[in-house]
Amino acid sequence: MSVLSPVLATPADASLPYSPAVLASGAVRTLYISGQVGINASGQVPADFEGQVRAAFANLEQVLAAAGMGLGDLAKVTAFLTDPADYAAYGPLRTELLQGHKPASTLVIAAALARPEWRFEIEAVAVAAA
Fold it and tell me: Is the separation of the CB atoms in 125 and 60 below 8 Å?
């Protein structure tokens, strides 16, 4: 049973690809996840944006699994892109990779990330029943 409930302020909010807010209720465990970047399992950084997003989400899922959680436990995500031209590609990828889950979300276009080859980073907060 999920301890997370979307908070919709208006009827139009239901059609958004994210939740304007997420309420965590009851006895819960909260996981604060550091930024995950697009380094794949072999330690390589894919050159393309999609490859980096997919790798970062795989890393995010690995961290969630280590805490006994999954994508459905994400309450909040913050994504960072370094190129505004990648914005159009990110929305459909995000929808696919979150598998229908709609956490509260923020998207930031940043001038740069910690390493010049990184084009994408995602940090998150997950909440699950205790």
Answer: no
